[in-house]
Amino acid sequence: MSAHATTGEHWETSPAPLLVAMGCLLVLPLPFASYFQYQKPGVAIGFLGVGVPVLLSGIAIWVQEGVTQKEGQFGYSQLALPIFIISEALIFLGLFVSYWVVRLLASSWPPDGTPNLAITTPIIMTIVLVSSSVTYHIAEGKLEKGDTDGFKSMLGVTMLLGMLFLGMTSFEYGHLIAEKFTPSANIFGSAFYSITGFHAAHVFIGLCMFLAVLLPALKGNMNVDFVKCAGVYWHFVDVVWFFVISQIYFW
Q: What pLDDT does 83 receive?
């Protein structure tokens, strides 16, 4: 009898990775190419109309599988997450390197058409984001002690702080756009919205992860590995923000 038969192990299969990959293809490169390269907005909308539900369904299935994974079942999430974090860090590094090249080669900075960026809002945003990392760390500690109610409460506080951060980002964008500072205003506008927008997208994804943790937790279902991975991702987003604020607002 084989080892797999004696131990009860079996191959796990899932349609989620294929759905996510197909969704990313239909949501990102194909509509962008259709709209910007071939000037076919109808085709781009068609790709998005198919891609968005495919992507969301893949994510929903994947998250559901992760949350309902049986305790003690071996998984690769905590091994794979650092690899994913490294890939994300390299994407951010690419954005920062592009910004550094433009910044250092410019004869004058900031370019004409750039308003004065207020530093009060990003400082408050920093306090909010750091506080959210602290509250999630507290939530993990309560979960380790078996205090599930405390975990859910602190997770809710973390999510509120994350939403406040996104709200302040939207407020800042609205103020800057009212001053005619848009991504097409100048090269700094392109860099500013690309870097801060990419970071804000990661905050939004982190909130979606927390929601995927909270909803099953309200029904008494929790996966400790999933909780830890969500925390690592959130702390990574927090660390990246320090690079964003130091390079964009204070340099």
A: 85
Q: What is the pTM of this model?
A: 0.79
What would the DSSP string read from start to end of 135-204?
Answer: HHHHHHHHHHTT-HHHHHHHHHHHHHHHHHHHHHHHHHHHHHHHTT--TTT-HHHHHHHHHHHHHHHHHH
> Which residue, among 251, 221, 234, 177, has the nearest Cα to 66 in the 3D structure?
221
Please give the helix or strand (H or E) that residue 66 lies within, else none.
helix 41-67
Rounded CA-CA distance 139/235 in Å is: 13
Give the integer Cα–Cα distance in Å for 26 and 23: 5
pLDDT level of residue 239 (50, 70, 90 thresholds): very high
Query: Residues of 18-53 as b/e, b for ≥16 C-beta within 10 angstroms?
Result: ebbeebeebbeebbeebbeeeeeeeebeebbeebee
Q: At 43, which amino acid appears?
A: V
Report the distance separating Cα 117 and Cα 106, nearest Å. 19
